């Protein structure tokens, strides 16, 4: 019998470095996570493959998926829909693979509602001043926008209580090591595996 | 403010390799666990230092500690008492150090009663037949004793539900890596650290 995989949701305030951590994690050779493939209504770009980069869907079909609750979360962004298809996630978990989803805080809260047994990891800045300097160092935003982002970040940190774990992103490699440790530890949780051992006692 | 340390209790059936795993863990250079020092009424052997190898106690004092609930667990073995002093554990935890205790199943259940907020890790054999061959390979026991040990081991595996985690001891290095991952993950648990982040939001 295959042990069902875990759904791991990495989230955190904008600017904290979610994308960087996710990228570093998937560059590690021995990583065994399956990156969650999103559905979208936007057109494929050159070289993008359906079912690999995205599941490309006509707008009508996406809206039917929303209606039929076939998305763990979804959002509209610059006129296109993006979302996480339930069926794909369920199928992958039932193959015993851990699915990894990196997502904004609002999306993570949607996933939590649809899939409370997921593993919710909040990526946190070492401090607010550090977060501010990361946002400022992108160099793309005006002071007003920066202040607005900081206000949103504070609100998002207040939402930390919905998460199972908080990983400090002091250094990308430390954050990756902590996330991997959390996944390993969760697979050792007694409530997940004691049934397997009890079966062992019965058959031997 | 120092984050309080964790009490980590490693236990499991006799023959599963608790001592071997503990030894390998403490041979790792970057390990940051504090091995729990036991109190005992047995006489110090040559080279043993009070407060390092054991806390050596007169019998009367040990019995007073039992009465005053100053031991997380205790047992009598070949005419001597052995036990884990509460005060030493509390002091070490309050210094922010994680305390590691390797102990028989019955002792672990005593600790659980006195200190339910501990982290209880059950070291499990890959299979019952593997456990049996480990016990047989010690080469010191008669068939009756071996069968008796297997009976006890099965009873102990049934007690797994009192633990937080189950670590399979397929290979010592794998078991060590899993234990370290569990300790790292537990330090990232949101309920342990969200208060720290909320303070951060207030002061900055």
UniProtKB/TrEMBL annotation, chains A, B:
Protein name: Guanylate kinase
EC number: 2.7.4.8
Annotated Guanylate kinase-like domain residues: 5-184
InterPro entries: GK/Ca_channel_bsu (IPR008145), Guanylate_kin-like_dom (IPR008144), Guanylate_kinase (IPR017665), Guanylate_kinase_CS (IPR020590), P-loop_NTPase (IPR027417)
Similarity comment: family membership: Belongs to the guanylate kinase family.
Pfam family, one: Guanylate_kin
Function: Essential for recycling GMP and indirectly, cGMP.
Entry's localization field: Cytoplasm
Reactions catalysed: GMP + ATP = GDP + ADP
């Amino acid at each position: 019998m295959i042990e069902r995989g875990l759904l791991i949701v990495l989230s955190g305030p904008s600017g904290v470095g979610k994308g960087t951590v996710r990228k570093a994690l998937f560059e590690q050779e021995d990583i065994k996570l399956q990156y969650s493939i999103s559905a979208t209504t936007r057109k494929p770009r050159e070289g993008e493959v359906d079912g690999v980069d995205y599941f490309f869907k006509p707008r009508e079909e996406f809206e039917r998926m929303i209606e039929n609750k076939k998305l763990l979360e979804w959002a509209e962004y610059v006129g296109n829909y993006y979302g996480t298809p339930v069926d794909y996630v369920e199928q992958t978990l039932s193959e015993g693979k851990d699915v990894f989803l990196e997502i904004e805080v609002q999306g993570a809260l949607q996933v939590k509602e649809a899939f409370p047994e997921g593993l919710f990891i909040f990526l946190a800045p070492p401090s607010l001043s550090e977060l501010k300097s990361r946002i400022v160092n992108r160099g793309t935003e005006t002071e007003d926008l920066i202040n607005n982002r900081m206000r949103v970040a504070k609100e998002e940190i207040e939402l930390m209580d919905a998460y199972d774990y908080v990983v400090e992103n002091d250094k990308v490699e430390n954050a990756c090591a902590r996330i991997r440790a959390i996944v390993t530890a969760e697979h050792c949780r007694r409530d997940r595996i004691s049934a397997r051992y009890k079966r062992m006692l019965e058959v031997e």
